[in-house]
Amino acid sequence: MALVTGSVEVGDLTAEERMQALYDAHAKPVYSFLLRLTFGERRAAEDLLQETMMRAWRKIEVLNQDIATLRPWLLTVARRVAIDAGRAKQARPEEVGLVDMTVLPSGDDAIERMLAVQTIKQAMARLTPEHRDVIIEIYYRDRPVAEAAAVLGIPEGTVKSRTYHALRSLRAAMGAAVKRQPE
Description:
mainly alpha
């Protein structure tokens, strides 16, 4: 028995029309199923639904002509897609050390620039004098490592090491200063 939509049998439809009929008939229930699997994360459920429908599209020519019977198959595919996504997420290393771009000034707001300057000043004040001197020579005065080492009277390796540790301390101090600012 062929499914009839309007006056056209599904067997007479093009692949695109069959896919549209499949989507119209099953997308909402599959999305609801995926929403439960993702604990209410709408974006994740939408992404998983899209991948499920892509897999259906790849097989549209070999799927049963009766669109109404395909929901169990779609739910199985959706469950497997969700499992694959969960495994992929676990396999990737966790991202660390990302800068929160929302706390950086946009460049066109004078108040934001002033707050950024104040934050940097406070963070620089927390550095040791040795670390502060290296940061000033390398970044403020834009000197190469060899020149900064000559000015500071320390070996180049020490300049590199202090720069590394100063930047880590500065990053930590800036993060602490940003968290303390009122919104």
